[in-house]
Known about the structure:
By secondary structure, this protein is of the alpha/beta class.
Amino acid sequence: MTRFGIIGTGRITRRLVADLQSTDTVTVTAIASRQKERADWFASQYGIAAAVEGYEQLLQRDDVDAVYVSLPPSLHAQWCIAAARAKKTILCEKPLAISGDEAEQIARVCAEEGVRWLDATAYFHHRRTVEMRDIVRRGELGQLGHISAAVSFYRPFQAGEHRLDKSLGGGCLLDLGWYAVSLACIMAQSAPTRVFADHTVTENDVPIRTVGTLWFADNITASLSVGYDTATRKWFEVAGSEASLICDDFTRPWLERPTRFWIHDAKGSVTANEIADRQEPRMIETLIGDQPLDEYNQLSVTTQRVLEQLDRSANSGQPVMMSETDTTFSP
């Protein structure tokens, strides 16, 4: 039985705690907040035995084998590294960090300490994602040409929302861009060589809408649109010379609908595919299992690097070339 401790009591924590508690061989033994009263409330609401004041105190507990880090992005590196030094398995909410260097540091310390880790991007682990990726890799779409991805939701935000605070790692690029960029890298089977943030709308000095272009080897391109000012979108299309693959809910399946995707061929024929799965429990099982995590970890660091360069491009108004240190993802 793997005993999880929860670091942070944000809104997204509530959903994943239920997934942890419903996963065989996992139990949630403790939750930590900076305020004891908040930890007490959360523990009582979700049946967690121990409420802890302070994140370091949770890392020192003997009844915690693994941690879920659910804090604002600006705190991820600090507490992932502390957890690794404490020899705790790590599940970190996305984005992994707020810079490529921080992401590399997390990966390096985890390697030094022999600690398993994943970022909590659950769609990676859904059986549907694996099948869609394999369709592309098997060449069933023909020669791959272009990838499009759009991820958005429309405000309002809660008071004190970290997504609108630059100092906490806010903005749609780090948040929703994580999904679009990682998807493009998975389907292109590599990291991009060049990126360009074509258009950005800002508010409170953070991006609330970003449109971008990625260039990969073999003349593969990708376009992305992410933002907080349009209706909920979570779709992508992978276009090849013979067919296109389309999914309209890749980040998290629509409730009460089949988990699906479509193949559109050049003659107008459409084939629907359904693959049911529970992505969060599968992600947790992958983390606590014994399969290698190198590909997931490389994808996390590469996604962080690409987002960093897209932000640099948005600030300069110019395309940015990716360096060799930015392109570690090679499945």
